[in-house]
From TrEMBL:
Keyword annotations: Glycosyltransferase, Transferase
Organism the protein comes from: Algoriphagus aestuariicola
Domain named Glycosyltransferase 2-like: residues: 6-174
InterPro entries: Glyco_trans_2-like, Nucleotide-diphossugar_trans
Family stated for the protein in its record: Belongs to the glycosyltransferase 2 family.
SUPFAM superfamilies with a match to the protein in the record: Nucleotide-diphospho-sugar transferases
Name the record gives this protein: Glycosyltransferase family 2 protein
Gene3D superfamilies given in the database record: Spore Coat Polysaccharide Biosynthesis Protein SpsA, Chain A (3.90.550.10)
Amino acid sequence: MNLSLSVVLPNYNGRALLEAFLPCTFQALDDSGLSYEFIIVDDGSDDGSMEFIASNYPQIKVLENGANGGFSYSCNRGIYEAKNQLIFLVNSDIRLSPDYFKGQLEYFNDPKTFGVMGKILNGDGSKLEIGAKIARRRGKVLKTDRFYLPDTNSNSAPTLFLSGANALIDRQKLLELGGFDELYSPFYAEDLDLGVRAWRMGWKCYFHEQSTCFHMGSATMKSQIQKSWVKTVYFRNRMLFHAVHLEKDELFQWKAQTILFDVLPKLLIGKTWIWKSFQAFRQLESKISESRRKLNNQLQKNPDAKSLRDIEREFQLLLDSQKAVLKF
C-alpha cells in the first residue's frame, strides 16, 4: 500500500521544544520512506517560534491563528489543510524514536482502522506514561485511568482512544467525523471524545507497542497557566464528554452521581474550582445538544454504529481473549 502522510503540529510558545525535537521528528519521517508534508499551526506564539521555523525549516507550511484558539481549533485547521491519506498529529514536546513509524502502516490495510499510536515513555524512558487505554464504569461515569500492554505474543492492542500527542489517523475518516470537537477547547478530553466517536462508528483504534516516543513534559503550559484553572477545564471537559456520549436514560443518574460524589465532596474540602467547572459545563448546554445531534446524525447513517455500552462490552471481550497486562 502506497501511503502518504501529513504531519500536523499545533504550537504555542514552543520554540525551545521545536529546536530540540523537530530533528527527531524529521528523522523518523525520513526513515519511514513515506512521502510527507509538514504543517505547523501556531496559536498566537510570541516567543519567536515562527521566526525560528522560517529560518531553519522553510519546507514547513505554517498556519498562524489570529488569536489563541486552543488545541482542537489549531489541529482542525491543520487537518483541513492537509492533503495526504494519513494525518500524524504530534505535540511539540514529543521526541520520536527513529523507527517510530515501523509497523504502523500495516494497520491501514484493514478498512476498519481509524488510527494507531505508539508507546509513550517519560523523558528518560524509565516510566511508561501511556499504553492501550481500556473502558470501565464506576456507576455511570466512564473511567479511563487504566491502561494495558498486550501479551508477549503480540505487540498491538485495541485502545479506547489515540493520544493527541502521537496519533496516526486515516484522514478521510477523520474528516467524516469533522475532526476534533471544539466543544472541548482549549484542551483536555478532545482526543478521548474523538477515539470514542471513531469506535461508535464501527472503526478501530490501535496501540503499537514497538513504536516508542518520549514525552518531555508540557513545561510551557505548566509555567503559564494556573493549576486551578487547568483543573477547572479538565473536570468541565470530563462532564462534557459524558453529556455528549451517554444515552438519554443515563443522563439523570450520571448528573446526580457527579454532584453527589464529585462536586459536593470537593466543595466541602475547599476545592472551589470544581464549582467553576460545573458552572462552565452548564453554560455549554446548547453546544452539548449540538454535539449530540451531530453525532447521532452520523451514527444513524452508519449500519455499524454502536453505543458506549457496546464499546465497553467489546473491550471486555478483547481483554478476556488475550493475556493483557493491566497497568495503573
